[in-house]
Amino acid sequence: MKESGQLFGWSFGDPSRADEPGYLDSLRQAALANARQDAASRGFTVEAGSETYAVIEQGGTLIEVDSAPGGLIVRCTVTIVGAGAGNVHPEGPMNGLRKDG
User: Fold this and answer.
1) Contact in structure between 70 and 13 (CB atoms under 8 Å)
2) Which helix (H) or strand (E) holds 13?
3) Is 60 exceeded by the pLDDT of residue 64?
4) Which of 22, 28, 57, 72 could serve as 13's disulfide partner, Cβ 3.0–4.6 Å?
5) Closest CA to 5 of 74, 100, 83, 93
6) Do the beta carbons of residue 13 and residue 39 sit within 8 Å?
7) Hey, is 90 helix, strand or coil?
8) What is the pTM of this model?
9) Rounded to an integer, what distance in angstroms lies between the CA atom of residue 26 and that of residue 22?
């Protein structure tokens, strides 16, 4: 059986540029690259096509983003595969590794 889990990747931007053509796409690409890098550093592979994105702006959610560079955050959630991947679950802003799994 193939083990799978999920983790987040992040990128940060300038909300005043959000309407520029291609700007959010470039932030999405950067967030996906960040997720792939995190997965690789843990020995996992990102499942192709599994990425989903959330664009978070300062004041637009219940979470506090005042500390985010620029005030615009793109979060990419991906499915990861590999031995032990079933123990990795993103929670809040972090990628956690369950110790009981």
Assistant:
1) yes
2) strand 4-13
3) no
4) 72
5) 83
6) no
7) strand
8) 0.84
9) 6
Q: What three-state secondary structure class fits 97?
A: strand
All residues at 6 or more sequence positions from 10 whose CB lies less than 8 Å from its CB, including other chains: 31, 34, 73, 74, 75, 76, 93
* Encoded amino acid at 59, one letter: G
Instruction: Copy the structure tokens of residue 51.
Output: 């990425």
Query: Of 39, 47, 44, which is closest to residue 79 (Cα–Cα)?
Result: 47
Q: What is the DSSP code string of 45-96?
A: EEPTT--EEEEEETTSSSS--TTSGGGEEEEEEEEEESTTGGGEEEETTEEE
- Within a 13 Å sphere around the CA of 98, how many CA atoms are in the beta-carbon half? 13
In sequence order, what are the beta bridge partners of 66?
none
Q: Residue 99's pLDDT band (boundaries 50, 70, 90)? A: very low
Is residue 85 very low, low, confident or very high in pLDDT (cuts 50, 70, 90)?
very high
